[in-house]
Write a structure and sequence with these properties.
This protein is α/β, with parallel strands linked by helices. The protein has eleven helices and 19 strands. Strands 1, 4, 5, 6, 7, 8 and 19 form a seven-stranded mixed β-sheet that branches. A five-stranded parallel β-sheet has the order 10-17-11-12-13, covered by helices on one side. 41% of the residues are buried.
Length: 478
């Protein structure tokens, strides 16, 4: 962390910042890059394979993408994302990647320091955010080339590090290292404050020198504390004209809300299984580990347990062939390990011997309670009850963002304020071309909070925010 930034934070300066970004994962890093004067232009002589987009790009070849009409440029684009700007930026960075091609980006980047907007990125972890919390050997769901940020391809970075991709995918450890390196190589470090925990964001503070309650220039007040290894937490309070939420959605694991879920052998993170195997708390001779869930986190837990020959009971509420099950949406050739888990789930019958020693699948089973003597009680598809002895329970059924630092926990910002905020089903309601909240001027959301759940697409949100903020700063009176 830059010492000047640390001093600024500790001093709780009353001088307002243009932008505070809360979260230092891929979304926050990409936005910091764009706000630091790095400006995308159409590369001279570049031809985009999409004819309509190519025609639009040639209409203003000397104008930065940030200064163009993102609504107009993104019109007519289709792909694996609902966000038009995310599709646009992805298409400019990786023109034919969805068709298996490797065309270079049609963009060229210029460092124009006069366009930089002063900002600060607050994060609990090192740059890269939650990627530093994932077990390092875990292979990414997305292709390695899709994990990269603008103007530094993952494959080029890995080549210099003498690392390689596995079946075109990278490990979480490599990607976390890449994000840290990206911040350093692009000279962004002075904008980042690590170990910063935000506890409150409030809006409506009059800007210094304003006319009090009649002043339309209201500020956000961001409060929290700075964690250090050798000192007690240092409180801070900062003001900003704009705040960007880039915290992701993996802060608070989802719960079953059943009796016994708070017992000490029931956990909600894969790391608990890692610790248990390393300490010998679970072994091949132990009672089975119960894994609840049918997503990729649950599949990772199954793979991890089987690697150590730990017996597994795998329970999930859906049928194996449910179209909504993530395994039914993944190409078999790209994700053989996940399809192996899916095969185990399908071929297992609780009424007959399993072909996979040490693995038992419980489709359409709903957990009812966990007992202190390590018994797990289920409701089966016929409404009957089944009881299993277990050594450890992992409930891996998704997660929710922790926006407790916002008024009302941020509930009013969701598309459906009556339901919990969820990156996939109920994200923050934002303007699709600025990513500004439809409920609060000056408040933005990017990444999973805004419904963009893959690294390749979160960058479009950063582009939209940067474009919006640049226009605001240009309009701001001197």
């Amino acid at each position: 962390m830059n010492s000047a930034r640390k001093d600024h934070l500790s001093a709780s300066s009353s001088e307002p910042l243009a932008v505070i970004i809360i979260g230092n994962g891929p979304s926050g890093i990409c936005l910091s890059y764009l706000l630091s004067g790095y400006t995308p232009y159409l590369k001279p002589g570049a031809v985009h394979p999409h004819p309509l987009l190519q025609r639009k790009l040639t209409e203003a070849p000397g104008v930065s993408i940030l200064d163009q009409d993102l609504d107009y440029l993104s019109e007519g684009l289709e792909g694996r994302c609902q966000s038009p700007v995310a599709l646009l930026f992805d298409s400019l960075l990786r023109p034919d990647t969805d068709f298996g091609g490797n065309l270079e980006s049609v963009l060229t980047w210029r460092r124009q320091k006069e366009r930089a907007i002063p900002h600060m990125v607050l994060g609990r972890n090192l740059p890269g955010g939650a990627w530093h919390s994932i077990e390092g050997s875990t292979v990414t769901l997305s292709k390695g080339q899709w994990m990269g940020l603008p103007d530094l391809q993952v494959k080029d970075w890995m080549r210099k590090k003498r690392r390689g991709l596995r079946n075109s995918r990278a490990t979480a450890g490599d990607i976390a290292h890449y994000y840290r390196d990206y911040v350093t190589k692009k000279g962004l470090g002075h904008n980042f404050v690590c170990g910063a925990v935000v506890t409150a964001v409030e809006w409506g503070t009059p800007e210094p020198g304003g006319s009090g309650s009649q002043d339309p220039s209201r500020l956000f007040q961001v409060s929290g504390f700075l964690t250090t290894q050798d000192q007690s937490p240092q409180p801070f309070s900062l003001c900003a004209r704009n705040v960007v939420l880039a915290t992701g959605t993996s802060d608070s694991p989802a719960h079953l809300d059943i009796p016994g879920e708070a017992l000490p052998f029931v956990h909600h993170e894969l790391s608990a299984l890692e610790v248990a195997t390393q300490t010998g708390a679970v072994t091949p001779a132990s009672e089975p580990v119960l894994i609840v869930g049918a997503g990729l986190s649950a599949a990772d837990a199954v793979l991890y347990a089987r690697h150590y020959n730990v017996p597994v009971i795998h329970a999930f509420r859906r049928t194996v062939d449910d179209p909504g099950l993530v395994f039914n949406q993944l190409p078999r050739m790209l994700y053989p390990e996940y399809h192996k888990v899916h095969q185990m789930m399908r071929e297992q019958s609780i009424l007959s011997p399993s072909p996979y020693k040490g693995y038992l699948s419980l489709p359409e089973h709903r957990p009812l309670l966990f007992k202190e003597d390590r018994q797990a009680v289920f409701c089966d598809p016929q409404g009957g009850q089944k009881v299993f002895g277990v050594s450890l329970v992992l409930v891996l059924i998704g997660s929710y963002p922790d926006l407790s630092f916002l008024p009302g926990g941020g509930a009013d910002l969701a598309m459906d304020p009556s339901q919990p905020l969820n990156g996939k089903r109920n994200p923050v309601d934002v303007d699709p071309f600025t990513y500004q909240s439809t409920r609060q001027e000056g408040l933005y959301a990017v990444g999973p909070l805004a419904g963009d759940n893959f690294v390749r697409f979160v960058q479009g949100g950063a582009l939209a925010v940067a474009s919006s903020l640049l226009k605001k700063e240009t309009r701001k009176p001197p």
